[in-house]
């Protein structure tokens, strides 16, 4: 038996960044769990110590807390799953971790690792990198932990992903061409898995955990027969695909029922391309027997007829994502796709006739497509009633794809940093691409940006009323402090019709009275989602000066209450700079709550502080808005006068809106008062309305529906109380059909 490492190999997978704190991150560590499961199967008692980073670390911790977590774990190897959405932050965390652990080795895998992934190669922050399926390569690395470092080598045509050893440690320095070709080293050719039995199953084994939405992800098939040029999934495997066995499939669904899973998201690309597709649907129907769990799958609608649609419905499929992308023939040809319009239309109708909801994918900026082609595609979908659920993407030149490799030949340009959006094609120049996004928004009556209202809880007393000083808590949310008021009285308990059992966000550090500052943490986590400082109190000013933001989460609200913003702007700006210096990848919404007009130099100073230590533009580019992940809002009282803005100079408000978001605080006596107040005309449709209630409504669905009916800007409504706001957003998305 080989000698075990005394320090662990730590597997890390970072989440999709979020603009604001959300209850669900979507970060399920399937890749890390699959690596560990396969290593257990292959190495048995010779398996070194391998650990997956904690769920809290991977989902919630900001940069400072995550680096501290890694330092305390003291791994010998940090093995990271790299994706387009996390690669920049992953490289930063590696850099900080190596500064804290001098002999730390780094292994990289995931779709961001490719021969043409110059964003990774330029930085060269790793000791080993694996292109393609990683399980067998991971086993080889574990079996050779005490040998020399290895580095990714470009694979030749027809070969499988390979790595070569070289004796030099790489610290930001690429090896010589001879060494990068593997001269003098061990060449590894890790084969793809023949079946998925060795990676069954991240959830069943307990290595992966559900989030509050109760959605379980499962891979039942690996491999793709299609050759879309904008995707590299089909390039990772030559030959037949790999399937999960019938017994393993049945076991997974038995676990899902016992765990109370609300939906199973099947990750298989284009479900219909399995050679045993029809028989597989019968297996799904058997495995997903009563009580049946709704399934979400991806497939091509043109391969669906009435018989297949009926079989999908019998298997429990309730939602389908169908990739259309475009109708333009030349764009389809260059994308490596074919489309039969009639079959697509019949497949869509068959799915709908069996009660299956369908979301159609479109791509803007495909080579060979044009703005007119995009409008033709939208008109086709609209005429046939297929435009209700559209998912619109900008084309990306992802590492390892034919699209990226052929970019010069195709005459396309793309962003050099993630998300690698295509910015120009010969038939779709950059100015028309920007205009086309607006055209699609106008045609669909929607906003394609990812901009979300900030999340905030006002912990200080309501003027002229009893003060709610701790969060409202329901028995459904588990152990926490009970709601109470200073001076007695009762509070209606929070009920949760929209979310399952869980715990609410909770306060730490200040007990049950308002002492000038609070930290509000994510559910089941020490990561902070909101810092609050009342700069009108000595305690608030002292706490802001002392705060170093080492426990910040991945998205944070920074709430300042200031009677004199001019006097406190220096402290606020320094606080923002400290937060971002410690956590450059944390999304921040700064909210300044004040009662009166103030010089806008204050906003300029805060805006400059928000530019501190910027390391990524991913969220900006995905959202299509500058500084989308670092925003400033001014919260003003709507009660001063007859409505929002009545007590403020209109010229001052217009000037403020040009540099910050404006939010009107509505202190409401009860539910009916809230409905009346949000129905009042707003001065500007870009303003937000922040509703604060003394108690949580007993019937949230009816209350939210009444607000949406009454409010002309229901998508810009906010609620004081993180949990209540999260429930409103879930209700709003469900009502609009955008919750999937």
Brief description of this entry?
With 740 residues, the protein is an alpha/beta fold. It contains 24 helices and 27 strands. Helix 22 links the parallel strand 25 and strand 26.
How does this structure look, described?
The structure is a single chain. This protein is α/β, with parallel strands linked by helices. It folds into three domains: 9-188, Rossmann fold; 214-395, TIM Barrel; 475-736, TIM Barrel (Alpha-Beta Barrel), CATH 3.20.20. Helix content is 32%, strand content 17%. The protein contains 24 helices and 27 strands. The strands form six sheets. The chain has a nine-stranded mixed β-sheet. Helix 9 (277-287) links the parallel strand 12 (263-266) and strand 13 (295-299). Helix 9 runs parallel beside helix 10 (306-314), helix 10 (306-314) packs parallel to helix 12 and helix 13 (371-383) runs parallel beside helix 16.
Give the helices and strands, then pairings.
Layout: E1 9-13, H1 30-43, E2 50-52, H2 55-59, H3 63-73, E3 77-81, H4 87-100, E4 105-109, H5 118-123, E5 128-129, H6 135-143, E6 150-153, E7 162-165, H7 177-180, E8 187-188, E9 215-218, E10 221-222, E11 242-243, H8 246-258, E12 263-266, H9 277-287, E13 295-299, H10 306-314, E14 317-325, H11 329-334, H12 341-353, E15 357-364, H13 371-383, E16 390-394, H14 402-405, H15 407-410, E17 413-414, E18 422-424, H16 430-444, E19 506-508, E20 517-521, E21 528-534, H17 538-546, E22 552-561, H18 565-582, E23 587-593, H19 601-610, H20 618-623, E24 630-637, H21 650-657, E25 661-667, H22 671-678, E26 688-692, H23 700-710, E27 717-719, H24 722-736
Parallel strand pairs: 1-2, 1-3, 3-4, 4-5, 9-12, 12-13, 13-14, 14-15, 15-16, 21-22, 22-23, 23-24, 24-25, 25-26, 26-27
Antiparallel strand pairs: 6-7, 7-8, 10-11, 17-18, 19-20, 20-21
Helix pairs in contact: 1-6, 3-4, 8-9, 9-10, 10-12, 13-16, 18-19, 22-23, 23-24
